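tool=predict chain=A
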Amino acid sequence: MRTALIVQGMLLVSLAAAGCAKTPGASTAAAPPPSGTAMTVPTGPRSMEGGTRQAAAVGSTTRQRIEGFKVADTLADVHFEFDRYDLTAEATQALDANAAWLKANPRQLVLIEGHCDERGTVGYNLALGERRAKATQNYLAAHGVQAGRVSIVSYGEERPQCSDHTEGCWAKNRRAHFMVKQQ
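tool=predict ok
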């Protein structure tokens, strides 16, 4: 009798183990949120599969340039401090002027591109670029620009404005850039 109970217990344990999933649940790795204090600086060349530097989309952004948008000469770029996505006083002045233009031109759609300098990993810079574009979008929405007219995309470090390896050049690359198209 005791042997039969032990055999039944072992059978139940083996059936329970056989019914459990063998593969772990899927998880998505995200870049850590910018702390505003420090960031990892790569020490060697970065590449992804096949030697390309293409990265997957971050959040709700797309990786390709959105069709139909063109450079908005009347809208000023907004620049950011190193490893930051909060808006400076200079940035809010530029955004106030941009908001006024956008309110005066309600048939214009706007695309805000988030950009970073070359320091940091590809994934981190894509996430930081998205946060910069989102901070800019939120400011415009808070100042009367209809949120439905504004789209964002992050290019991270992939589309630098300046290619020198100096602080002055990196400062030019840390920006939110504006593109427009007729509605």
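Residues 122-142 form the longest helix (21 residues). Residues 72 and 179 are 5 Å apart (CA to CA).
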